């Protein structure tokens, strides 16, 4: 998959900045459509709701500003999943937090650094495509997994974690929502937990486009090659409860539960907050952070007689 074939909507009213951004993106092969303000962008999106995979959005504009467009996008079922990168000269924590709370999970401040711009665009595109692929897979799948009452699973590799996210999501009332958070937590258990990749290391690896190589190197390393992620799935009449436990040393999980303005300019770091807010009814980290328990309520649905898998 070549991410650089993506089409990006650039919403920017300053001609010079628009030209700089458009040139930088087009040099990488991206297709760029320019809108001079939020109102023009909304009209473009309404005319072609499936055309764009990412929106690069200025905050301060005439007619409809960036925050007004962002709120309209995130309240629209047709556009809510498109990732929005907010570009702004306002880097203060209050402004950034406002954008994060409204759904702009990526931020860039003016003046732009080319490497960071391209890294953030790539991360946003990957998020969008992963999300679409996950949701389509879950929609196509059968759901015999509602008969599973208890299961215990172990895995090492990222692709196995993604497969289990699909597996568990099929038993949830809203699988398209649950699969996103499940994948985030299972992938975190491998890369940050078992493989010990720190937040700062992942930032550098993503910017340098060497993240996948480092994952494979550590999976083969004697220091990490025996580590596994253990997952317990439990279902009763009221809820589904999934416990994910890695063999790492844990982390300071409290600061990742909410969107943090200090991380808004990084190409990653929003997954736990997104999972907590969007995917589950309850999420709880335990101990030093190498164990997380998530709960999905079943809402009084009729439950079939279930068996166990151990």
Task: Give the arrangement of secondary structure elements.
Blueprint: E1 7-11, H1 15-27, E2 31-35, H2 38-47, E3 54-58, H3 66-74, E4 84-88, H4 93-102, E5 106-109, H5 114-140, E6 148-155, H6 158-169, H7 175-194, H8 199-207, H9 211-220, E7 229-235, E8 239-245, H10 271-278, E9 282-286, E10 291-297, E11 307-309
Parallel strand pairs: 1-2, 1-3, 3-4, 4-5, 6-11
Antiparallel strand pairs: 6-7, 7-8, 8-10, 9-10
Helix pairs in contact: 2-3, 5-7, 6-7, 7-10
CATH superfamily of the largest domain: Histidine kinase-like ATPase, C-terminal domain
Strand order in the sheet with the most strands: 9-10-8-7-6-11
Helix content: 40-55%
Give the terminus-to-terminus CA distance. 37 Å
Give the DSSP E fraction (strand runs of 2 or more residues): 15-25%
Order of helices and strands: EHEHEHEHEHEHHHHEEHEEE
Give a short account of the largest sheet: 6 strands, mixed
Return Rg in Å.
20 Å
């Amino acid at each position: 998959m070549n991410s650089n074939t993506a089409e990006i909507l650039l919403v920017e009213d300053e001609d010079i900045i628009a030209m700089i951004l458009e040139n930088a993106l087009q040099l990488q092969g991206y297709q760029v459509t320019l809108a001079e303000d939020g109102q023009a962008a909304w009209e473009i999106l309404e005319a072609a709701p499936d055309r764009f995979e990412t929106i690069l959005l200025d905050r301060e504009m005439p007619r409809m500003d960036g925050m007004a467009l962002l709120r309209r996008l995130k309240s629209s079922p047709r556009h809510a999943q498109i990732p929005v990168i907010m570009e702004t000269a306002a880097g203060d924590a209050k402004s950034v937090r406002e954008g994060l709370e409204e759904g702009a999970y990526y931020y860039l401040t003016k003046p732009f650094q080319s490497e960071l711009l391209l890294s953030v665009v790539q991360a946003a595109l990957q998020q969008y495509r992963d999300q679409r692929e996950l949701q389509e897979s879950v929609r196509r799948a059968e759901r015999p997994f509602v008969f599973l009452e208890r299961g215990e699973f172990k895995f090492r590799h990222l692709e196995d974690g993604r497969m289990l996210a699909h597996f568990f999501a099929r038993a949830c009332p809203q699988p398209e929502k649950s699969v996103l958070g499940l994948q985030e937590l299972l992938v975190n258990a491998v890369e940050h937990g078992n493989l010990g990749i720190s937040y700062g290391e992942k930032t550098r690896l993503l910017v340098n486009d060497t993240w996948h190589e480092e994952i494979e190197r550590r999976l083969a390393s004697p220091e990490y090659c025996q580590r596994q992620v253990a997952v317990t799935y439990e279902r009763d009449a009221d809820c589904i409860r999934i416990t994910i436990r890695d063999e790492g040393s844990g982390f300071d999980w409290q600061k990742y539960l909410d969107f943090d303005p200090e991380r808004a300019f990084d190409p990653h770091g929003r997954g736990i907050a997104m999972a907590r807010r969007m995917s589950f009814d309850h999420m709880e980290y335990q101990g030093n952070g190498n164990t997380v328990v998530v709960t999905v309520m079943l809402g009084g649905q009729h439950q079939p007689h279930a068996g166990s898998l151990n």
